[in-house]
Amino acid sequence: MEVPSEENQMDSPKKCLRVILFPVPLQGHINPLIQLAGILYSRGFSISIIQFGFNSINPSTYPHFNFHSILPTLSETDANTGDVIAFALKLNCCCFSPFRECFSNILSDTSKGRIACLITDAAWYFTQAIADEYNIRRLAVRTTSICSFLAFAALPLLREKGYIPLEESRLEEPIPELTPCKIKDIHMIKSGNFEDIFRYVTNVVRGNRASSGLIWNTFEDLERAKIAEFSRESPAPVFPIGPFHKYCLASSSSLLEPDKSSLSWLEKQATNSVIYVSFGSLAVINEKEFQEIGWGLVNSKQPFLWVVRPGLVPGVQRLDRLLEGFLKVAGERGLVVKWAPQQAVLAHQATGGFWTHGGWNSTLESICEGVPMICQPAFGDQRVNTRYVSDVWRVGIHLENRIERGEIQRTIRRLMGSEEGEEMRGRIRSLKEKGEACLRPGGASYKSLDRLTDYISEI
Ligand code: UDP
User: Fold this and answer.
1) Keywords of this protein's UniProt record, alphabetized (predicted)?
2) Is residue 69 domain-shared with residue 212, that is, in the same domain?
3) What is the pLDDT of residues 196-210, one digit of tens each?
4) Domain range spanning residue 276?
5) End-to-end CA distance of the chain
6) Quick one: what percent of the chain has pLDDT higher than 90?
7) Which of 26, 27, 84 to mutate to test the pocket of ligand 1 (most atoms within 8 A of CB)?
8) Which of 133, 306, 309, 322 has the most beta carbons within 10 angstroms of its beta carbon?
9) Whether residue 153 is found in the same domain as residue 190
10) Would 448 be classed as within a structural domain?
11) Least confident of 18-22, 183-187, 239-243, 385-389
């Protein structure tokens, strides 16, 4: 999709309508929100983004958007709790006042056009009360799959039915209420406190239901039944308009600088030969797992491009020495970078497989380039996404057992050098084509986006 120039955009009939977006300050949330901002800009809206004073993108990368900052007061203990749910609950409280002040300032500046709506990450449920107070519609955007969201929203019900607290001996049991998930797939959230989890789920679900609409980064041919199931229950209109990242050129909302040497290295590799390995922006592994992954990759004899981002293996000093050891044996066959231009890597013809943690952006990006996966989920939505990748869409292998070099070597061979792997490649290519068709005029996502554009314009 072509992004209009500033000048053309001012000629658009919606030139006076402004949309305010508010992402969660994490890479996997920032990317889709910024992509959505680009999509709406291309449809003629002017864009304002409220971001944090930390983990924020450089406004000069997007000169056609207006940026505003808030800096909530957080103690060091709040920020380093390690408990994502406690942190999310805390943020929803301590952002209220700074966000309200910033929002009110934006509303009072009428020089940049009327405000059509506020679009926030669904995790920011606190914003609904502020939008209501100012009589502005709030739409929520979910940055996960619908299948994983439905599992997340079902946690209170699953507790009532006795699946939670999880029992080690029952982890392999299927959950008939959530087919094809098993009990171990709902082991989603690391938190010291169950009550916090249920409070958070309840708040997000309530915030969704009170919103004026829900935008999803998914597409009809991928999650048809789940889109229908969610839409049936939702009092607010539902807009599945994904995959977001395919509307615009590769996004530049990376918080770390992508290492472009990945692409020149890929140029030297044979078609479909490279396994790309990245566990996203948050997942961590321990030193033993790091060693097993390194030797598994080396022993597989397959060319590999491995993202070892700062903090991937917390507290280990001798990472460089370990990496040197792997690369000495792998030679030209291996490349390690701190951060990759992932979308371009997946789109490269040399990339034949993606060993991922199953984050939704990574999963969708892999589907959109027709690259089959090995999934090693850690937490959150990753386990349910992985269940769908392996059991429903059948476009990847779930690395379920412990992380061990022999198992890794065999799994890479299965994906990259077997008939089973070729079948997965065929299926994921067909999904890629369906995703492309959804975005073309007349396609389901295209029509949803038309609906969304009209809906936002009705103020
Ligand atoms: N990403 C990237 N370069 C890397 C690793 C990841 O650009 O080396 C991007 C990736 O394309 C995706 C996002 O970071 O858009 C990660 O989001 P995801 O939902 O997959 O995982 P999370 O980081 O939220 O766990």
Assistant:
1) Glycosyltransferase, Transferase
2) yes
3) 889 999 999 999 999
4) 261-435
5) 26
6) 80
7) 27
8) 306
9) yes
10) yes
11) 183-187
